[in-house]
């Protein structure tokens, strides 16, 4: 399967730069994944497609303000550091710009010395392992010094950090938001729950590999990034119970989907576990757990577009994206949503 099979033309003005004031007022494209039939709705209408007994699975990861701006101790040259993955308590895998100024042993000063980083080694893709020294609690210092790591296609400044956070975010660890969840309000979730829909939580800490472009023409040769996930026993029971009783499991976002598919065994039972997943889902994949998917509109030639194509059929998805462009839907992280059922 070729990379070009997942290309579509997107006018730049359709890339959403700002979140809507009301999270649940974004548009919703509902698509029947069997027939490809499309209906145009508002996101809060999602409740009309959910049935009592269904299980809606959300990713409760919390985005950390992972973008730090500092200066080299020796030269005062400006350095940008993006936290990607916590390796040890004080050691992080990071993306550094400009990398050539950050050789092993380089010290980087942040916030007048509130935080000091030392480059310990260079790893895959030129990423740096940086050891941080500080007094106090790292998360509090990060909240004071860090900025939200918005994707590169968002050029507007985000005035409210919470708008790049789901209303149910709980566990710190993501370098990017699970953006399908940004459409939910607490009120909408309460309404869904009152309808008799079970809401289950999983955790997958989203890495910036999500935005890494596929560079190989044969997509099966693409090496997927790994991300850390956790599934607690009570949550697994909710999901397995819904499945065993013949109800649907609907994933909110590709991150919830990847978590469920990573931890479901060959008998279709979700396991209680935590660990790293580098699952790459593309057309031909046989889904073990999910029956429905709520997701945003994804970048051309991205692994996320390949995932939704695997779930609903490439022809259906590419036709839906063409219609979304014609209908001027808003795309990517702060954009509109699709519901595939």
What does this structure look like?
The chain is an alpha/beta fold and 341 residues long. It has two domains: 3-63 and 160-340, QueA-like; 67-145, QueA-like (Thrombin, subunit H, Beta Barrel), CATH 2.40.10. Helix content is 18%, strand content 27%. The chain has six helices and 17 strands. The strands form three sheets. The chain has a nine-stranded mixed sheet with strand order 2-1-17-16-14-3-12-13-15. It has a six-stranded antiparallel barrel with strand order 5-6-7-10-9-8. A two-stranded parallel ribbon has the order 4-11. The two termini are 25 Å apart.
List keywords for this structure.
341 residues, alpha/beta, QueA-like, Thrombin, subunit H, 2 domains, nine-stranded mixed β-sheet, six-stranded antiparallel barrel, globular
Write the layout of secondary structure elements.
Layout: E1 27-31, E2 38-42, E3 55-59, E4 61-63, E5 67-72, E6 78-86, E7 91-97, E8 107-110, E9 115-122, E10 128-134, H1 138-145, E11 171-174, H2 186-194, E12 198-204, E13 227-230, H3 233-244, E14 249-252, H4 253-263, E15 274-277, E16 292-296, H5 303-312, H6 314-326, E17 337-340
Parallel strand pairs: 1-17, 3-12, 3-14, 4-11, 14-16
Antiparallel strand pairs: 1-2, 5-6, 5-8, 6-7, 7-10, 8-9, 9-10, 12-13, 13-15, 16-17
Helix pairs in contact: 5-6
